[in-house]
Amino acid sequence: MAGNRLRIMDTTIRDGQQSLWATRMTTAEMLPILPKMDEVGYWAIEAWGGATFDTCLRFLDEDPWERLRLIKERCPNTPLAMLVRGQNLIGYKHYSTDVVERFIERAHANGVDVFRVFDALNDIDNIRDCAAAIKKVGAHFEPAISYTRSPVHTLDSYIGYARQLAELGADSLCIKDMAGLLVPYRAAQLVSALRTEIGLPVHMHCHFIGGMASANYLRGAEEGAEIVDCAHAPLAFGNSQPAVEMTVSSFQGSPFDTGLDLDLLFEIADYWDGVRKAGKHQRGITTLTHMRIYKHQIPGGMMSNLVGQLDLQNMHDRLPEIVAEIPRVRKEVGYPPLVTPMSQIVGTQAVMNVLTGERWKIVSTEMREYLMGFYGKTPAPIDEGIREKVLGHVDVAKLQEEAKNVHLQTYDEAAAEIGDLAKTEEDVLSYALFPNEARALLEKRAAGTLRDITQPLDGGASVSADITDSEEDTDMNVSQIRDLIEALDGSSVAEVTIKDGTTEVAIKKPVAVTAGAPAPAPAAAAEPAAPAPAPAAPAAEPAAPAPAAATDRPATWKAVESPMVGTFYQAPAPDADPFVKVGDEVKVGQTLCIVEAMKLMNEITAEEDGIVREICGKNAEPVEFGEPLFYIEPTA
C-alpha cells in the first residue's frame, strides 16, 4: 500500500493566500506555524514564487529573499517549492538567459528545492532556459501543462507538449488546472495518457472554483497520479485548492492513504483560522459566478482580482459585462490559457473594452507586445482585424522575427543601473525583475527605515487578536461592535483590538461639510486624517487646499481622465524622459503617460491633437478612476 500512497504539496502560504487573500499574507503571519507544518510530512511546501515576490516589494515592504530564507530556517525537513513563469520568471515579461540562470541558482541557494515551471502559452521555447538552469543546480524540475479548453486544446496536444517537456529533463509533470476547468473523467483520461505515454510521476494542481477539484484528485489517483496540491481549510476552497484535512480524510483506508496525522493538520488549521479572523479575510466559497467557470473560463485568482479592481472603481455592477467580454477577447487573441500573465493581459483588455465603451480603444503595453509575438507562439491564430486595429499595417512575420532578437537587459546591465544600492546578487535580481519596487525597498534599507519582517505589518484600519484563539465569538464581537458604532452615529471605526478579553475601539469621526452649511461645532470637528485627540479649531479651513476648480481653467482646456484606479507614471522607465511636458504639442494616439493597474502598464494616449497645458498626475503616485491626469488644449 505504501507504494500507492498519495503525496501532498501544501499551498497555504503561496497559492492559497494568493487565491483568497490577494497575496497579502505577511512573513510574520507565517513564521509561528512553520515548524508545525514542517512536521507533517508533506511532499513539499509551496512557499515562494507566483505573485508573492512582487507583492512583498509592492505592498508589504518586505525583501522576498529574506522571506525565503526565514521559511527555510523553520522548515529544514520539508522541500520548499516555488512557481516559475518560464522565461518570465516571477515577472510579467521575458528576461534574458543570464538573468534566468542567476535567478534559479540564487533561488536554489536560498532554499528552493522544487521548481514548478509553466508557460502561459504552453510554448516549449519559453521553458528551455529555466529547464537548463534547474538541471544545472541539481534541483527538482517539474514543468506544468497549463490546462484549458478550446477548439485547439486536445488530449493529443497536451501529450505532445508533455513529450517536449520530458525531453528537457523533467523529474515530474504537473497538470496545472489554474481555472478549475478540469472535470473528473477528463482528469482520469489525461492522467492515464500521461502515465502511459510519458511515464513520469504526475502531480495534479486543481483549483476548487467550480467544485470539481476533489473528485479530480480521486479519479487522478485511481489512474496513477502521485501528488496533489492542497491548502489548509481556512485558505482552501473557492478560488483556492481543496482542503488538506478533507483530502487526507477522504483517502483514509484506501490504497492511496496519505498517512498524514489529522490531529496535527487540524492544529495547524486552527492557527490559520485565527490569522484569517484577525485579518478579516473571507473563507473560500463556491458561488454561482464560480460555477459559471465552465462557460467563462476565468481563473479564481483572476476573478478575485477583477472583482477587487471593480470595487475600487465603484463599478461592481459591470462585472457581468466583463465576464461576457473575456471569452470574446480570448478568442480574438488565439485562445491563450488564462494564467499569469495572460489572465491579466486578457482580463485588463476586457475591462478596458467595457469601461471605455469602445472595444480595443485602450490597449496595454503587454497586449501590444503579445500581439507582436513577444510572448511566444499562440495556440491559435490571432484575429488579423484586431491585430491591425491595434498595431496598424505591419509585417507580422518580420515582427515575430524581431521579437526573437529583441535585446533583454542582462544581469550586468541591471547591476550597473542600481549601483551601490545593491549589496548582493539577490538585490540585483530584484531590481532586474521589478526596478521601481526594488529600488524603493533598497533605498529604505540604505536609509535604515526598512521594517523588520518578522514583526506584524503596521497599518491603518486593522483587527488584531490572539491568532491561536479559534473561538468564533471573537469574530462576532468585532463585527457587532463595528456595526453598532457605525449604525449609531455614522462614525468610521478605524481600529478594533481584542486584548485579553477586553475590547478597545479607536474611532475616527469624519467631518461632512456641505456647501453653504455652517461649520461644525468644535467638539465634532476632528480632522479625518489626524490621529491626535486634540480638537480642531472651529470653522477651520480644510487642511489641504482643494485643487483648482474647472472654472479656474480656460474653457478650451479638456481633461484627460484616468480610466482606472492605478499608479501614474510620466515616463516609460525611472531614468527616461517623460512622455510629454507642459507646452508640448501632441498628436492623436500619442502616448501621454502610463497608468499601471492589475500589474500591467496601460498607455494613455491623446484623443485629439493639442497642446499639453497642465500635468495633474504625480509620478509614481496613485490615481483614482476619473481623476484628471492632464489638461490639453485642442488645436484642431
DSSP summary: helix tally? 24
What shape does the CA trace take? globular
Radius of gyration: 26 Å
Largest sheet: 8 strands, parallel, barrel
Low-confidence stretches: 459-550
Task: Give the termini separation.
Answer: 80 Å
Roughly how much helix do the residues carry, as a percent range? 25-40%
Please count the beta strands (DSSP E, at least 2 residues each). Answer: 19
Give the class from helix and strand content and strand pairing. alpha/beta
* Strand numbers in spatial order across the main sheet: 1-2-3-4-5-6-7-8
Kindly estimate the percentage of residues that lie in beta strands according to DSSP: 15-25%
What does this protein structure show overall?
The chain is globular and about 80 Å long. It has an eight-stranded parallel barrel, surrounded by six helices. By secondary structure, the chain is of the alpha/beta class. The chain has 24 helices and 19 strands. It is about 40% helix and about 15% strand. α8 links the parallel β5 (about 140-145) and β6.
